[in-house]
Amino acid sequence: MQAYDYVLKARSKGRNTAIDFINSIFSSFLEMHGDRRFKDDPAIIAGIAYLKDIPCTVIGVEKGKSNEEKQKRNLGSAHPEGYRKALRQMKLAEKFKRPIVLFVDTPGAFCGLEAEQRGQGQAIAENLLEMSALEVPILSILIGEGGSGGALALALANEVWILENGVYSVISPEGCASILWKDPSKASEAAQSLKLTSKDLYQLKVVERVIKEDELMMEKLQADIYEFIKESLKKDGQTLKTQRYMRFRGI
Amino acid sequence: MRFKRPKNTLEGEGKKSRLFPKDKSQTKDKKEKASREKVNKEAKINRESKDHKESKEEIYCKKCKKYISRIDLEKSLHICPFCNHHFMISPKERIKILCDENSFVEHNQDLKSVNILDFPDYDAKLEKAIKTSGENESVLCGLCSIGGCETAIFIMNGEFMMGSMGQITGEKISRLFEYATDKSLPVLGFSLSGGARMQEGIISLMQMAKVSSTVKRHSDQGNLYICVLTNPTSGGVTASFAMQADIILAEPDALVCFAGPRVIEQTIRKKVPEELQRATSVMENGFIDDIVSRKAQKTYLGLLLKMHERKEVKNASI
């Protein structure tokens, strides 16, 4: 399979979206809305849920399934208020000493006039700054598309995992081809060069684990997340913070 | 005069009020007020329905324009069976619906407001409010458990001067937060208010600062504060403790605002869209975490409290 096939697979219809992961892995999910500043961004879902017996803060980028829902959720492209909503929930997680689990699946942060006016760049920057210092465990799982800064703003984590058909990249292959070669049809070549597949990312040490996509995925993922969270909760806040610092310092 | 505005709005009167009423109009205002209060006495629960004949047996739902038997309404937790309109309920009824049986213990129930500023007619108003509501102040505070989780709780009372915030209201809520900080307990609040109590002037304003200070101390110790916004939450209460909770919930269709629609219309001379200050819009605008129907509240809040149980504190105290 070529790199671009992975891209198409990551974007394909019928793929599990964030809400599927939340509902299969967690229980009693209570969704919390709003950034307490400007809007509730439907592209980001956030809330509190149980992972077996551990209350966690769960955040996901939701692309939506039906056409209507996709439109509402802006195809998983968050506005600044979406990142601010996520940060607010992460800050609450820190206050109540809850671990944070994020499911990332986005073509990228939304590029639009209003997003610019409200500070898309600033919102992402603030998430990176604050997430680097949170004193609770953070686990990010890339479940589909990992589009650039919009994905990273939810992935400054102690560990980053990726599904085997997931991708994570600084830019979409189409964008890369049109900027470098002024020819979007060369997306396939661009995808190859960008090293954006799960296998490449693992080799580059950008992700810790590649999750196999089979029928047992959800079950296994639940067990893996539980184990990771349980181990992480044994560490104190300072240790977790330092570990995260070292993780990115080494890249 | 600023404080007076939201209150006027919430009494649901039909007359035009000016931004700066002249002295001349005040006697007229008084007369109108007296007659209005007479009507309101008959329809204590639903203050907005004064244009419709209500009886001992039936109450009028202004939202869907239907009559509902009072017995049915009580059975359905004071939610309109036709349109899901949440009627105002007294704090005692809310405790019955929400708290584990016999778990509620009231705090500071004897604290009473006094007419600090010698404000005209305030004494009589207070006396009347105490009589009609059967409570000493516009907020009920205490300790209870929900789904087995212990929590401090305050519930504001719409039958007591439209839940306006006086010095004692602020004092009772502040004492509750201090108590909860001391015992590492969460605080669950039900806000309902026309805003600060203008009869207590600047002292009333100061309650916003006082309560906020105790909320912050409680929060800094890692304690949970949940506030449920009920219809209506406005003015100084919105601008202080109602919006300071870790988790802000609202009852369906609750009016949540700083300035009421009438004040805004008089200020900007434009019509305010009816839905703008309703819970759904306020949530879309990012200020409410979720809307929870009264029927679901016991389960929802029980779960939320359980998710936030402080094990380290529990263990330490054993």
Tell me about this structure:
The complex is a heterodimer of chains A (251) and B (318). Chain A is an alpha/beta fold and 251 residues long. Chain A has one domain (16-169, 195-246): 2-enoyl-CoA Hydratase, Chain A, domain 1, CATH 3.90.226.10. Helices cover 45% and strands 20% of the residues of chain A. Chain A has helices at 3-11, 18-25, 67-72, 80-95, 113-117, 120-131, 148-152, 173-180, 187-194, 198-203, 217-232, 237-249; strands at residues 27-31, 44-51, 54-61, 100-106, 138-147, 159-163, 167-169, 209-211. Chain A is globular. The model of chain A has no long low-confidence stretch (mean pLDDT 94). Chain B has 318 residues and is of the alpha/beta class. Chain B has a domain at 89-309: 2-enoyl-CoA Hydratase, Chain A, domain 1, CATH 3.90.226.10. Chain B has helices at residues 4-10, 24-42, 70-75, 91-98, 122-133, 167-183, 201-220, 235-238, 261-268, 279-284, 297-307, 311-317, and strands at residues 58-61, 66-69, 105-107, 139-146, 149-156, 187-193, 225-233, 247-250, 290-291. Chain B has a 7-stranded mixed sheet with strand order 3-4-5-6-7-8-9, sandwiched between helices. Chain B has a two-stranded antiparallel sheet with strand order 1-2. In chain B, helix 8 (235-238) links the parallel strand 7 (225-233) and strand 8. The longest helix of chain B is centred in the middle third of the chain and has 20 residues, at 201-220. The A-B interface holds A 28, 30-40, 48, 50, 55, 81, 85, 92, 95-97 and B 219, 222, 224, 246-247, 283-290, 300, 303-304, 307-308.
Task: Using brief descriptors, characterize the structure shown.
heterodimer; A: 251 residues; alpha/beta; 2-enoyl-CoA Hydratase, Chain A, domain 1; 8-stranded mixed sheet; B: 318 residues; 7-stranded mixed sheet; two-stranded antiparallel sheet; 12 helices; 9 strands; 39% helix; globular; disordered N terminus
